[in-house]
């Protein structure tokens, strides 16, 4: 919908009306914004997206004091314009409908049926904008026995099988189910939603038809099971947790060094022999119990404790250097300080600094998308609550000062 994009971007012609909050929906709209789409984020007056207050930590101002912008919110909302509209009011609903007429995509993650009572559901908006692409994100989808349930990433990781695969073996200390360290189901739902929106826009451009997209966190989590899901479907046996080990390859796991942890992934017998020789345990290369991978798997309970003691004799840096030189697949387990100081991460420019009105600059994790012709553009830091309300209403809907004053006085914006 933008007539003259300032930069050569993939989606500079697209306007997205974003009614989502928290993570899955905002992750999708941030992807679209990174690719050049104009994204208008609609929030509740006074409070806004729940994640604005999900801290600490918070962005600090010029004096070093906490602002109201939580790091959680900052992670998923760059590139957007922020407006506040009370959609529970008739006047607020009229504003949204007027913005829909100026938009290509609507994103929402309200409970099933909640927007229908406001006349902002797909069936209602499709009547006034037939080519609209409308994407709903919920925990369980628009149909089925769980459709009315609220869906949270942690719960979906459990229900969708991920936690049955993640965590230490039940027969070892600390064994049991474990969630992922980030809200991976939310993030993957945002990624799948991005793909679906782009596909629907391509269809619209070819046919003139809009369409409805029904995204569910549980569906995404089941799809994410990938080869493990296929293993179950073909064997009838539910895979078990193996912690940081591999059920079919030894050694293929984490080990504690003298000052940290490393991953060793010896995928063949030659790599195993190099590993134990570097660890000053050449006799393990000739031990008849450990000559081949099937034998090492069979005797893992004997071999792994010996390897664990061996690895603890050297530092993380010593092991990585020696194993890499010998061609044994390995890697460190970095904390986030080490991640953002890693030379490869820095070479790939995975941290960006953007101007911000409260702090001068804000540090953000960059997009991993690297496009040669239409590169990602970082045009707007995560916006303040309602930062662009007046601008959007004036520029897109031609509201005058008197109308904006009226809407403010009545708490509609």
TrEMBL record:
Keywords: Transferase
Top-level taxon of the source organism: Bacteria
Keyword match Nucleotide-binding: no
Pfam families documented for this protein: CoA_transf_3
Xref: SUPFAM superfamilies: CoA-transferase family III (CaiB/BaiF)
InterPro entries: CoA-transferase_III_domain (IPR050483), CoA-Trfase_fam_III (IPR003673), CoA-Trfase_III_dom3_sf (IPR044855), CoA-Trfase_III_dom_1_sf (IPR023606)
GO molecular function: transferase activity
Protein name according to UniProt: CoA transferase
Lineage: Bacteria, Pseudomonadati, Pseudomonadota, Betaproteobacteria, Burkholderiales
């Amino acid at each position: 919908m933008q007539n003259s994009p300032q930069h050569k971007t993939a989606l500079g012609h697209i306007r997205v009306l974003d009614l989502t909050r928290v993570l899955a929906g905002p992750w999708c709209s941030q992807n679209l914004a990174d690719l050049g789409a104009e994204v208008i984020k609609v929030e509740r007056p006074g409070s806004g997206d729940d994640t604005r207050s999900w801290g600490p930590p918070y962005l600090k101002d010029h004096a070093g004091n906490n602002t109201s912008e939580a790091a959680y919110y900052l992670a998923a909302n760059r590139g957007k314009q922020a407006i506040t509209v009370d959609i529970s009011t008739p006047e607020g609903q009229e504003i949204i409908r007027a913005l829909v007429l100026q938009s290509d995509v609507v994103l929402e993650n309200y409970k099933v049926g909640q927007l229908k009572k406001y006349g902002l559901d797909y069936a209602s908006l499709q009547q006034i904008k037939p080519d609209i692409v409308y994407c709903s994100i919920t925990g369980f989808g628009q149909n089925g026995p769980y459709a009315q349930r609220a869906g949270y990433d942690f719960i979906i990781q459990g229900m969708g099988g991920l936690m049955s695969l993640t965590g230490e073996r039940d027969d070892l200390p600390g064994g049991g189910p474990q969630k992922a360290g980030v809200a991976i189901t939310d993030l993957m739902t945002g990624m799948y939603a991005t793909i679906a929106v782009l596909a629907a826009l391509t269809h619209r451009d070819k046919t003139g038809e809009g369409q409805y997209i029904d995204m569910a966190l549980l569906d995404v989590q089941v799809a994410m099971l990938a080869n493990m899901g296929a293993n179950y479907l073909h064997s009838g046996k539910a895979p078990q947790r193996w912690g940081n080990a591999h059920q079919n390859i030894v050694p293929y796991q984490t080990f504690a060094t003298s000052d940290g942890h490393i991953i060793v992934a010896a995928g063949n017998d030659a790599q195993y022999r190099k590993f134990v020789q570097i660890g000053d345990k050449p006799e393990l290369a000739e031990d008849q119990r450990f000559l081949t991978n099937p034998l090492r798997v069979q005797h893992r309970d004997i071999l792994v404790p010996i390897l664990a003691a061996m690895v603890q004799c050297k530092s993380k840096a010593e092991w990585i250097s020696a194993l890499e030189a010998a061609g044994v697949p390995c890697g460190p387990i970095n904390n986030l300080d080490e991640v953002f100081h890693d030379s490869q991460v820095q070479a790939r420019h995975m941290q960006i600094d953007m101007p911000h009105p409260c702090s001068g600059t804000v540090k953000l994790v960059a997009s991993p998308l690297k496009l040669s012709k239409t590169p990602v553009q970082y045009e707007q830091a995560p916006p303040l609550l309602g930062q662009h309300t007046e601008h959007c209403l004036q520029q897109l809907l031609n509201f005058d000062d008197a109308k904006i004053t009226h809407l403010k006085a009545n708490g509609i914006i």
